Amino acid sequence: MNKFNTEERVEKPVVCSVIPEQDAYIDYRKLHYKNTIPDNRVLVFLTGFCVGMVFFYLTGGQNAGVGSLLDSEHLALLQNLEVNRSGLFSYVISLRIKQLIFGVICALSSVGALMAYSILGWCGFEFGLIIFSLVYEYGMKGILLTFSMVLPHGICYGVLFLLIFRNYWLRDKKGYHNETTAGSEKSHKKIEAIKTFVLILLLFSAGILCEVYINPEIMRKVTLLF
C-alpha cells in the first residue's frame, strides 16, 4: 500500500504538469487559427472582384464598356486637359454628398449589415471589371491606369466607408462591452459620436480635395506613358 501510494503521489504532479501545457497549446492553436482567417470584408471584396473578372471573360471583353471610355483618343485628351477646378469641385461635392447620405441611411437602416457587405462586394466587382478591361486594352499599363483613377481619394473614401458601417464589422464584442460598461455609458457614447462625426467630416473633406486637386494631375502624368 505504501509503495502504491508513493507511486500515486509521484504520478499526480506529472499529470498536472501536462494538462496546463495542453491547454496552452490549444489556446495557441485557436489564436493562430483566428489570426490566419481572412477578414470577412476582404473575402467579400475579393469575391466581388472575382465575379467581375468572370463577368469580363464571359462577355469576351466586348460588352464591359470600360476600355472604350479610356481609349487612345480619350487618353490623348487627358494628356492636355485643362481642368476647371471650380466646376469639377461642384460636380464632385454634389455627387459625394449624395453618396454619403445614402451610406448613412443604409448604416442606420435595419438591413445595414446586408447593405454594407453588398456595397463592398459591388465595389470589388467594379474594380475587378475595370482593371481587367484596362489590362485587356493596354496590357500591364492598364493596372497603373486603374490605380491612378482611384488614388489618393479612394483611400479616404474607403476609410470613410469602413467608419460609417463600423457597427456591422466583426470585432471583439466582449472587449467592446467591457470598455463601454467600465465608465459612464452616456458620456462615452457622446464622446464617441462627436469623434466619429469629426472624423467623417475630415475624411470626406480630404477625399474631395484629393479628387479635385491631386487625382487629375496623377492621371494626366500617367496618361503620358501611353
How do the strands and helices of this protein lay out in sequence?
Blueprint: H1 2-36, H2 40-58, H3 66-69, H4 72-79, H5 85-108, H6 112-138, H7 141-150, H8 153-164, H9 173-182, H10 185-223
Overall pLDDT: 80
- Percent strand equals under 5%
Major sheet description: none
Query: How far apart lie the N and C ends?
Result: 92 Å
Structural class: mainly alpha
Shape type: globular
Radius of gyration, in Å, reads 27 Å
Q: Please mark out the parts with pLDDT under 50 across 5 or more consecutive residues, or reply none.
A: 14-18, 172-180
Describe the fold and architecture.
With 226 residues, the protein is mainly alpha-helical. The protein is built from ten helices and no strands. The protein has helices spanning 2-36, 40-58, 66-69, 72-79, 85-108, 112-138, 141-150, 153-164, 173-182, 185-223. Helix 4 (72-79) crosses helix 10 (185-223). It starts with a helix and ends with a helix. Residues 14-18 and 172-180 have low confidence and may be disordered.
Main traits of this protein?
226 residues, 83% helix, globular, single chain, mainly alpha
Quick overview of this protein structure:
By secondary structure, the chain is mostly helical. Helix content is 83%, strand content 0%. The chain starts with a helix and ends with a helix.
